[in-house]
Write the structure tokens for this entry.
Amino acid sequence: MKAKIKAIYNLILPNKRINSLIFILFIIGFISGCLFLTIINVEEKEMVVNQVTNFISNINNNSINNLDLLKNSLLNNYIYIIVLWVLGLSVIGVIINIFLVYIKGFILGFTLSSIVLTYKVKGLLFSFVYVFPNELLKVLIIILLGVYSLTLSSDIIKELLKKKDNNIRVIFKRYIVILGISIILVGVSSLYESYVIPRLLNFIY
């Protein structure tokens, strides 16, 4: 069983060094986002608390338009993954992709710490509902795109320098498949985020 899981893991994420790099970048971004609240001033903290409070209050008062929330979620998420995917087709673009992976971790860490800061113990429940499984799905998509964009660029560089005879076509085909899977998963994630999460948060509130 372990051998099969390992084989699937190696098939999906073929380069261990690149996998580790992307994971580490995301974790650093997440920790940075969590710690960021400790360095901002009191006025900025109050502004963050007000924004979180207003959002949860709107959910509690049923003041959120789920369809508008879905449209915004789809638009923002699709733009993010398509930009990340396109940038991965060039060596220079990969540098930006690395930064985008870090930013995704930072935003998630900052969001969760903001919720906990605002609602304390209840904020932990809010954070759990916010993360599982919706944000984990988005993180998986970002990590996959980050890994494959870096892998593709690495193979292109090696091919240009003739250091290694890489089968770029195989990596590129996987890269296209990852985009297709990402588009589907983002659609599912956006539906969950727009219709399920508000109800769960309202129930907890």
